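User: Just a sanity check before I run the rest of the batch. Below are the structure tokens for the first item. I only need the designed sequence back.
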């Protein structure tokens, strides 16, 4: 097994375990056992657990933001597409909320590398919504709807929070298009 395969195995195991059970509940030995990567190689590739957590979140960010961008680009109405995409994600059997907020909730302002990834992810989501919204204020409102729906869905998985947020987003778009005099 070369370093690239070992890295992939470690990240696959870390993502499955950290997302399902939490960052603090899963130790490096468990990651090693699940991945089949020798402990020496694990620590050569990821000298500390913080480095593994940051790498897992970076990989998840690329996939998550990439999937959302693809859905929005393919949709005739991009803002509702954001919430339709969220509804599908919230309906996945292993959905456990936002991995970035979960990690932040567990680690707080702890490891700088992890906090940087969390902040970058949220900035990317904010930028995506800013590209779709007619005003910066509406982009911020859409961000709050998306984040709020994600938190609600983490407690009660399923599409309903995203669909409610979609309705609210459409009302905000309509109000922005037809302001009262």
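Assistant: Here's the designed sequence for the first item:
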């Amino acid at each position: 097994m070369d370093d690239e395969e070992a890295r992939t195995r470690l990240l696959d195991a870390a993502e499955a375990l950290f997302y399902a059970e939490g960052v603090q509940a899963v130790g490096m030995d468990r990651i090693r056992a699940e991945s089949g990567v020798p402990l020496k190689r694990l620590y050569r590739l990821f000298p500390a657990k913080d480095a593994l957590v940051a790498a897992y979140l970076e990989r998840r960010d690329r996939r998550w933001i990439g999937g959302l961008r693809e859905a929005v680009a393919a949709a005739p109405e991009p803002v509702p597409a954001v919430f339709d995409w969220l509804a599908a994600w919230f309906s996945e059997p292993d959905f456990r909320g936002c991995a970035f907020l979960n990690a932040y909730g567990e680690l707080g302002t702890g490891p700088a590398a992890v906090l940087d990834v969390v902040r970058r992810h949220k900035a990317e989501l904010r930028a995506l919504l800013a590209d779709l919204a007619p005003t910066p204020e509406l982009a911020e409102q859409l961000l709050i709807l998306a984040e709020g729906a994600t938190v609600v869905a983490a407690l009660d998985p399923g599409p309903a929070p995203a669909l409610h947020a979609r309705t609210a987003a459409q009302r905000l778009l309509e109000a922005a298009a037809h302001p009262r005099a």
